[in-house]
Design goal:
Order of helices and strands: HHEEEEEEEEE
Helix content: 10-25%
Number of domains: 1
Number of helices: 2
Shape: globular
Radius of gyration: 17 Å
Number of strands: 9
Oligomer: single chain
Largest sheet: 6 strands, antiparallel
CATH superfamily: Jelly Rolls
CATH architecture: Sandwich
Structural class: alpha+beta
Strand order of the largest sheet: 1-2-3-9-4-7
Distance between the termini: 35 Å
CATH class: Mainly Beta
Length: 173
C-alpha cells in the first residue's frame, strides 16, 4: 500500500520539480547561448516521456531505495539526475555532502532534519530545499515512518560551473 501511495505522490512531485528546475534554467540560460558551441557535436538530449516507478532504475542500501528516473542532458541542462528516494526511519541516503551541481530536494512524505550550509532544521512534508553548487546539504529521516523525497540535480548549460572550493574540506561530512 505504501508503494502505491509512493508512486502517485512521486509522479506528480517529480514532474512538478523537474518542470520547475527546467523553467529556471531556461530563464537563466536563454540569453547566454554561445554561437560557437552550437557548431560542436552535442549529445542527444533526453526525450519527453513518462517513466513509471517500476521502470525507474533502482538502487538499494540499508537506508532504503532510490529510483532514478532521468539522467543525462536536456536542452538546457547537463549532468541531470531526477530521482525519488524512500528512506527508512533513522537513516539517510548519505551524510551531508556537496557537489558541483545545483540541486532541489522536495520532501513528499515524512519528517526529518535538513542540513544546509552547516545548519540543521526540521524537515516537514512539502518542504523544498535548494542547494547551490558546493554548498553542504543533506536530509535525515528522524520520523517513525519512511520518508519520501524527490531530487532534481543538474548543471546548467551556458553558465560556468563554480570551481571546487579550496577549503580543505572533504565533500561528505
Amino acid at each position: 500500500m505504501l508503494r502505491d501511495k509512493t508512486r502517485g505522490l512521486l509522479s506528480c512531485s517529480l514532474f512538478a520539480a523537474a518542470g520547475f528546475a527546467a523553467a529556471i534554467v531556461l530563464l537563466r540560460t536563454s540569453d547566454a547561448a554561445d554561437p560557437a558551441a552550437k557548431e560542436k557535436a552535442v549529445p542527444k538530449p533526453l526525450q519527453s516521456q513518462i517513466v513509471r516507478w517500476d521502470d525507474a532504475r533502482s538502487h538499494t542500501g540499508d537506508w532504503g531505495e532510490m529510483r532514478r528516473y532521468f539522467t543525462g542532458e536536456t536542452y538546457a541542462t547537463k549532468d541531470v539526475l531526477v530521482a525519488a528516494a524512500v528512506v527508512e526511519p533513522g537513516k539517510a541516503v548519505h551524510k551531508a555532502h556537496r557537489h558541483a551541481e545545483e540541486e532541489y530536494l522536495m520532501l513528499v512524505e515524512g519528517s526529518g532534519v535538513w542540513s544546509l550550509d552547516g545548519k540543521e532544521c526540521e524537515a516537514r512534508r512539502g518542504d523544498v530545499l535548494y542547494a547551490a553548487p558546493w554548498v553542504f546539504h543533506g536530509l535525515t529521516n528522524t520520523g517513525d515512518k519512511p520518508l519520501i523525497f524527490a531530487v532534481v540535480r543538474y548543471n546548467p548549460k551556458g553558465v560556468r560551473v563554480p570551481e571546487r572550493p579550496t577549503d580543505g574540506k572533504k565533500d561528505e561530512q
